[in-house]
Design brief:
The complex is a heterodimer of chains A (about 375) and B (about 325). Chain A has about 375 residues and is of the alpha/beta class. Chain A has helices spanning about 25-35, 50-55, 55-65, 85-115, 130-145, 175-190, 200-205, 205-215, 220-230, 240-245, 260-270, 290-300, 310, 345-370, and strands at about 150-155, 165-170, 195, 215-220, 235, 275-280, 290, 305, 325-330. Chain A is globular, with a radius of gyration of 28 Å. The chains are: A alpha/beta (about 375), B alpha/beta (about 325). Chain B: InterPro entries: Epimerase_deHydtase, Lipid_A_modif_metabolic_enz, NAD(P)-bd_dom_sf.
């Protein structure tokens, strides 16, 4: 094969990496050289090779342990060599990804090892920051950046420290707006957005498990106040299924904002409310019908009919690539209300309406500015 | 007086109390003689389901009653009906006897966090005031709710008695033999497909210490006791290095039945829902009012338990990965 000649890239065929970073070649590098020189060397040199490979185990171990402590290196000397061709692995990795890629792959392996041994931390809500940052958010990022091409405005309205309650409109048949907002907030502020989700989410296998690990918890006042007291950014979509499952004809008309529980939670903790308007999510799955009887049978709020969904089967599950605009509005302060304001229903309703009106007006403004649904 | 001393937890609590020189006499009560060495504890063979217990309390002039006699598994009690009898009727008789005894000044009840149930609609953390969202009609969960109901009734009728109810998370540790420790000791651990429960543990030493703490101090009220932090079920099993068998939720009860028949672990339906949805309790009051600081966090308690089990099959894979890392770091 022609590929075999290209293997010693960067080292010019000499032992070591050729980067000038190290003076002693690693065992893997020696093994590599040994294999390649087989062709040119005379047969008399061959017996010296195995012992060289065996001795090289010791310097490698000591060098990498002092490197940056990514992992504890086991004793792989002499006959107890691992039953796996790590030299080949390293070669392949360097060939595929280059020097920087090697570090990335090492980080990935370290992550994988943490996952396998369970050496990671969960918070009391089951939020797994390790998994979220390494897997869940990177998986969603292409959808946010390439598919929906999300444009974010007013990110400076989210406080850089301390807690805030982000209240947004809910739409799009499937709660993709929640996931997109989560990615957007994490990428622009560097802080995780903890979302409040419906109980149906936690009854559903996999969805519930992943939501908890991604930072969601059940939407109720106890959990919301607990998250806010601990200084988190909390995202809530108070329209719930009413907003998510409304017909396409009613797009961008806000539904009732629950019972205003999010306002009383913010008032009790004295946390600012950041209104967030999301444009574009309505068009991802245009809901034109609902199989109500099947939905009742399955115990879900609705079974959607979109122009593509039951018709094209699984292909219909691909969201339409609408262009999204997300605008975070001016924070509404709740810390200057008197004590016990959270127990005043009239005041809570008023603030709820204020938040709702703000989002509705911003939605109209954004819709006016939008040139087309898809661009 | 300590009830339920023939079982491990009760025996250890009684021993711990007997080791304290400030406590005069420790009386251990149970139906069968304890297998464990009780030391300074005086064993009285009596059945708490029987009015005879009132005579024991009167004759021995008992001033403090520590009730650890709630049985968690039907297997160890000889069937579900017998378990219910011990838990509910036993508690009723015991409390009736205490109510008639003017000398009794303190009651400590070892309850469990199963009173909160487990379900998809649960808040992330239960505080002591919260009512359970998912009511169970089975097993220990139901018994614990009923026992606590009787204890509250007793506290109302005898306001002069200091009643502490300790809702403890699952005990774990090298010496604990419970459904949960047996579950983790299985070579292949079955879990419910698509769910990952949040678990909290209390180390057995902390549990015993907490009972002692409640006995020597006057701390009336209901307290959640658990180690800090949570572990998810999958994480716990990974830490053990054991392979997981994920079974769909509708086969969970038949799997539990098979496991029970194989005498590997003893599962009741409330434990299955616990291992599906998990449960977290808020321990703020344990620190502020109860004034107790567990020595082990949830993860440390689990690690201590893990050391008693030995390594599993998955550990091999992770050591391979470590070796791979070493090669990459060069």
């Amino acid at each position: 094969m022609a590929d075999a000649d290209v293997i010693p890239i960067g080292s010019g065929g000499r032992p070591g990496r050729g980067s000038g970073r190290r003076t002693t070649p690693s065992a893997a590098a020696r093994a590599l050289v040994g294999q390649n020189k087989k062709k040119s060397r005379s047969a008399g040199d061959e017996p010296a090779d195995p012992s060289a490979g065996g001795r090289a185990g010791a310097p490698r171990g000591s060098a990498s342990a002092g490197d940056d402590g990514l992992g504890v290196v086991p004793d792989v000397e002499g006959p107890e060599l691992p039953p796996f061709d790590f030299g080949g692995l390293e070669r392949a990795v360097r060939q595929l990804f280059g020097e920087d890629g090697e570090r990335r792959v090492a980080e990935w392996l370290a992550f994988l090892r943490r996952r396998l041994t369970g050496e990671y931390e969960l918070d009391e809500f089951g939020y797994d920051s390790d998994l979220t940052d390494q897997v869940l958010l990177p998986m969603l990022r292409p959808m946010v950046e390439k598919w929906f091409r999300v444009e974010v405005r007013g990110i400076e309205n989210i406080p850089s420290d301390g807690s805030a309650l982000i209240v947004a409109n809910h739409s799009g048949t499937m709660p993709l707006d929640g996931l997109v907002t989560q990615v957007v907030v994490a990428d622009h502020t560097g802080r995780p957005l903890r979302t409040l989700a419906a109980d149906l989410v936690f009854q559903t296998p996999f969805v519930g498990e992943l939501s908890r690990k991604g930072g969601a918890t059940l939407a109720n006042n106890d959990d919301a106040e607990r998250l806010l007291r601990q200084g988190n950014l909390v995202g809530v979509w108070p329209e719930g299924f009413k907003g998510l499952g409304k017909p396409f004809a009613e797009r961008y008309k806000l539904q009732r904002f629950g019972r205003g529980g999010f306002v009383s939670a913010a008032m009790r903790t004295g946390v600012p409310i950041v209104p967030c308007s999301i444009v574009g999510a309505e068009e991802i799955y245009p809901l034109v019908g609902n199989i109500a009887s099947l939905a009742r049978l399955l115990g879900v709020p609705y079974i959607p009919i979109t122009p593509f969904f039951p018709l094209l089967g699984p292909l219909g599950l691909i969201p339409l690539p609408s262009k999204w605009l997300i605008e975070f509005g001016e924070p509404i302060r709740t810390d200057d209300f008197a004590d016990g304001a959270a127990d005043d229903p009239m005041l809570v309703f008023n603030v709820t309406d204020q938040v709702r009106e703000t989002i509705q007006q911003t939605l109209y403004t954004l819709l006016m500015q939008r040139r087309s649904v898809f661009f | 007086m300590v009830t339920g001393v023939s079982r491990d937890a009760g025996a250890r609590c009684a021993r711990r109390l007997a080791d304290d020189p400030s406590i005069g006499t420790v009386l251990g009560v149970d139906v069968v003689p304890p297998r464990a060495e009780l030391g300074r504890v005086r064993f009285v063979r009596a059945d708490i389901r029987n009015p005879v217990i009132a005579k024991v309390i009167a004759a021995e002039d008992v001033d403090t009653v520590v009730h650890t006699g709630v049985v968690a598994t039907p297997g160890s009690a000889g069937g579900r009906s017998s378990m219910k009898e011990i838990n509910v009727i036993g508690t009723m008789q015991l409390l009736a006897a205490c109510q008639k005894a003017p000398g009794v000044a303190k009651l400590v009840v070892k309850s469990s966090t199963t009173v909160y149930g487990a379900g998809a609609r649960d808040p992330a953390m239960f505080t002591e005031e919260m009512a359970p969202r998912a009511i169970h009609h089975h097993g220990l969960s139901k018994d614990a709710v009923e026992v606590e109901g009787y204890v509250r009734g007793f506290a109302r009728r005898r306001p002069d008695v200091c009643v502490s109810t300790l809702r403890m998370a699952n005990w774990i540790g090298p010496k604990t033999d419970s459904p949960i420790t047996r579950y983790f000791a299985m070579p292949v651990v079955p879990t419910v497909f698509g769910f990952d429960a949040r678990l909290q543990f209390l180390h057995e030493d902390d549990g015993v210490e907490a009972i002692h703490h409640a006995t020597v101090n006057d701390l009336a009220g209901t307290f959640n006791l658990a180690g800090d932090g949570v572990l998810s079920l999958s994480q716990a099993i990974r830490r053990l290095g054991r392979p997981t068998l994920r079974v769909p939720s509708f086969t969970a009860s038949s799997t539990a039945a098979a496991v029970r028949r194989a005498r590997l672990a003893d599962f009741s339906p409330d434990q299955i829902s616990f291992l599906t949805y998990g449960r977290g309790v808020d321990t703020t009051r344990m620190r502020t009012e109860f004034g107790f600081e567990p020595k082990y966090s949830t993860a440390e308690a689990f690690d201590d338990f893990r050391r008693s089990l030995g390594t599993g099959a998955m550990t091999r894979v992770s050591s391979l990965l470590t070796a791979g890392l070493g090669a990459l770091r060069g």
